[in-house]
Automatic annotation (TrEMBL), chains A, B:
Domain of life of the native organism: Bacteria
Name of the protein in its database record: HTH-type transcriptional repressor KstR2
Keywords: DNA-binding, Transcription, Transcription regulation
DNA-binding region: 33-52
Organism annotation: Bradyrhizobium ivorense
Coiled coil (UniProt feature): none
Listed PANTHER family: HTH-TYPE TRANSCRIPTIONAL REGULATOR BETI, HTH-TYPE TRANSCRIPTIONAL REGULATOR RUTR
Location of the HTH tetR-type domain: 10-70
Signal peptide annotation: none
Lineage: Bacteria, Pseudomonadati, Pseudomonadota, Alphaproteobacteria, Hyphomicrobiales
GN (gene name): kstR2_5
Length: 220, 220
């Protein structure tokens, strides 16, 4: 089937990606058939190949684009911040906020690394390494400046990323806590965890509680 | 095929469970066929039903047994400890150690909740809730005693569990750090994170580094 350049190309591709994310999230990559994917989008199975090369390429693109988005937006969030404490606070706030809205992509990026072919796996691990390195560098700078106390930078990097990403398993919009309250709770854990307790905002530190009005929370 | 009570019953069941864990870990529950599972064990597909009722029951048993083991062993680890700081240290040490050896079971328990039928899902979420509640109670007691400073108990509980479980994604035996060094690094992050920095062991606190001889580390 010839590759067509039609006006609906990008729209169809976007629909394929969205359906792909949902199907992989719900059943896993191995269990997703291209026939089912096409049916979800409302096109013939053969027409998929006008938009994607293979199922593997679709998975790779989804995971790769997710991490590239993360990297690009993180660099915007960190821009202009030179102080490690400010950088770490910005990192926490960015990572938590981003992960509140990308639960499915995050799940796929974590659970379907197993399904990437070796070349694709290596590329994704390298990208993920670049993201981890941003956090590792902040921690390293904070230790150098004497404002952080960290036993092992690598373990702390992985542990903090896991802590922040864990949000994806329980966060639901409209729950007990506001976004700001959730960010503040994570900020306290991470900044205190690396020994920068004095850097946590006054309101949280003084009372040990969230400001009044932090409303009603969710775990579905 | 009639159900047989043979001397190899438990052995075969154990082989089925092990193969099931591996296949689900590698390809996902939906993609695991019972035919393939039987072939891995070296029995006829029909013979599976001498040992398990359904594929769903196998998944449920694997996940449920994993969390029941966790709960039972946690209670042993906490037995006789009344001080929240000691309890939290014991919780961290137990959870990290346990998760060093159960990477596949943990991955399945987290990634295949989606594949549990509603009744089974509810049972597993309740069991998981009981485990989470152990940690939440330790945090609550520590706040009451004035030794912990926690913004939100529920968020801190989920975040600390995610932090500790994150180990499964990178830990490999024989890496750069000893088990003890990895436990110490996690202990520092968690105890400091809840404001119990003064409770962290002197050696780690004073130097901010691991003892010399903490050897050579891994991420594959």
């Amino acid at each position: 089937m010839a590759r067509t350049i039609g006006s609906h190309g990008p729209t169809t591709l976007e629909a394929i990606r969205k359906a792909g994310v949902r199907l992989i999230y719900e059943n896993g990559y191995e269990a997703m058939s291209l026939r089912k994917l096409a049916a979800e989008v409302g096109i013939q199975a053969g027409s998929l190949y006008n938009h994607i090369s293979t199922k593997q390429d679709l998975l790779f693109d989804l995971v790769q684009d997710h991490i590239n988005d993360l990297l690009r937006e993180l660099d915007l969030a960190l821009a202009g911040k030179a102080d490690p404490v400010e950088q770490l606070r910005a990192f926490v706030s960015f990572h938590v906020t981003y992960h509140m809205t990308r639960k499915r992509e995050v799940f796929i990026a974590n659970s379907e690394l197993r399904s990437l072919e070796p070349k694709n796996y290596d590329a994704v691990v390298a990208l993920r390494g670049a993201y981890e390195q941003r956090l590792a560098q902040i921690l390293t700078d904070g230790v150098s400046d004497g404002v952080f106390e960290v036993v092992d930078i690598q373990v702390a990097t992985f542990a903090i990323l896991a802590l922040l990403t864990g949000l994806c398993t329980w966060y639901r919009p409209g729950g007990r806590l506001t976004r700001e309250a959730i960010i503040a709770a994570h900020e306290k854990l991470v900044l205190s965890g690396v020994g920068a307790a004095q850097a946590v905002t006054g309101e949280v530190r003084e009372t040990g509680r969230l400001p009044h009005g932090a409303a009603a929370g969710a775990r579905s």
